[in-house]
Amino acid sequence: MFEESAVIRWRKYTDRYRLIGNACKACGETYYPAKEQCPCGGKEFAAQQFSGKGRLLTFTEVKAAPEVFESKTPYVIGIVKLDEGPKVGAQICDANAGDLKIGQRVEAVFRKFYASGETGVLHYGTKFRPVF
Amino acid sequence: MVERKVAVIGVGITRFGEVWEKGLRQLLAEAELQALADARINPEKVDMIFTGNMCGGEFAGQEHLGGMASSILNLNVASTRVEGACASGSLAFRQGLMAIESGRADMVLVNGVEKMTDVSTEHVTTGLMGAGDEEWEGFQGFTFPGLYALMAKAYMNKFGLSRKQLAAVAVKNHFHGARNPIAQYRKEITLDDVYKSMMVAEPLTLLDCSPITDGAASVVLCNAETAKQYCEAPVYVAGSGQASDTLALAERSELHHVKATRLAKTQAFAQAKITVKDLDLVEVHDCFTIAEIMAMEDLGLCGNGKAGRLVEQGQTYFDGKTPVNTSGGLKACGHPVGATGVKQVVEVVQQLQGKAGKRQVKGAEIGVTHNVGGSGATVVVNVFKRGLP
């Protein structure tokens, strides 16, 4: 991945940090992340808040990571199907890979991702943790 | 409708591997000059150049490879770099194909090149992640082995693939690599070697993954009507297809196969008027062992969930019923990302010309290449024939 400036993070406040996507006004289909054009042809959307609750579709433990995540290895990544419909890729936290199962219930949490090079600025985002 | 047919009349390829003595330009020059010599033409015959490359800027500080490819040959003709992650080489090939089909050019040089070993492994991992979705995969800490591991787990959950079946892909590709003089790993391995190698992203170990590789490959394409003037055994492009899917893996409707492969294959096979039964060999995009399993099914070589058994039974060796990746694939031949799509064409052409030495598929007449960008957002499938289609 690519090292981000403060402006990039500011631009991503709604989708990255608040789990806000959108819903097509024509067919009602919900999207996270937000879409620009609906497959139904719709171009008008309303903001949609997602609950952050969902189910784990697949997961793995990453042992060799890109530069900024190197100190965090091993960590678990997965694909979550949100209860409202959309699927999203994210890190799965607060659990070892061995304790997780496909189909497992998960919920979104706001977490620290990594610290930027020399400035040490912290980057935050959304991860998911299992609900046992 | 396609009016003009296209033939491959020359191929060139460098050694694949850690080529410390050569930089990006030297690799590209070696492949270009070899291909022109093989086609027995001077550079002045070339009307257009397309060069596939993914990370020239990131790994070698060099963008603008169109300019580099033409400079090497002292030409002023149109020269363009094409990028589509690991499918960059095939995209360059398709640009060349369409340039001749359309009548815009009669003779095209297609290159693929990547110089990867001048930077650290972590830097390569970071750069390659540019093939994924930066916000929804890169920022989240995803890696390519990680993405394919997610697909492997989804596939295993659906069809029940065994560890042995997955490892057998790597063992077979190393067997072929050992018989390919330009391969990065000219060394056979055992199932045990795969099981015991370092875990990268469960279930994929280091030997389930393609390596970091330097290399370049080039092919000369020309209007099929004039091909025999330059080459005794031209190989013809019988069909070509390209399809796309969502950039992020999570957005796809299914995670256990690659939809864009199915779409590109349908186009290419229809244009070539062939079915899967006509194929003598296929070069597929095995960036990870699971990718070869999915490719076999997506290309229709077997039914869904059946590829593991075919591999385990040895049917995909060069002398088996369905030879897959006789070059050694990305796994053993190496994966210089921008060069891979063109390397696949070189391998199929050499096979159809009977020049594949110890890994030669007897009497091969029809071969297919399959090249994937990222986790499946871009796929190209090409069909080649020994005789005029």
From TrEMBL, chain A:
Residues 48-111 form the ChsH2 C-terminal OB-fold domain. SUPFAM superfamilies: Nucleic acid-binding proteins. Residues 15-45 form the ChsH2 rubredoxin-like zinc ribbon domain. It comes from the Archaea. It holds the Pfam family OB_ChsH2_C. This is Zn-ribbon domain-containing OB-fold protein.
TrEMBL record, chain B:
GO terms for molecular function: acyltransferase activity, transferring groups other than amino-acyl groups. PANTHER family: ACETYL-COA C-ACETYLTRANSFERASE, ACETYL-COA C-ACYLTRANSFERASE. Pfam families: Thiolase_C_1 (PF22691), Thiolase_N (PF00108). Residues 6-224 form the Thiolase N-terminal domain. This is Thiolase domain-containing protein. Residues 241-386 form the Thiolase C-terminal domain. One of its GO terms (biological process) is isoprenoid biosynthetic process. InterPro entries: Thiolase, Thiolase-like, Thiolase_C_2, Thiolase_N. The keyword Protein biosynthesis does not apply. Gene3D superfamilies: 3.40.47.10. The keyword Hydrolase does not apply. Keywords: Isoprene biosynthesis. It comes from the Archaea.
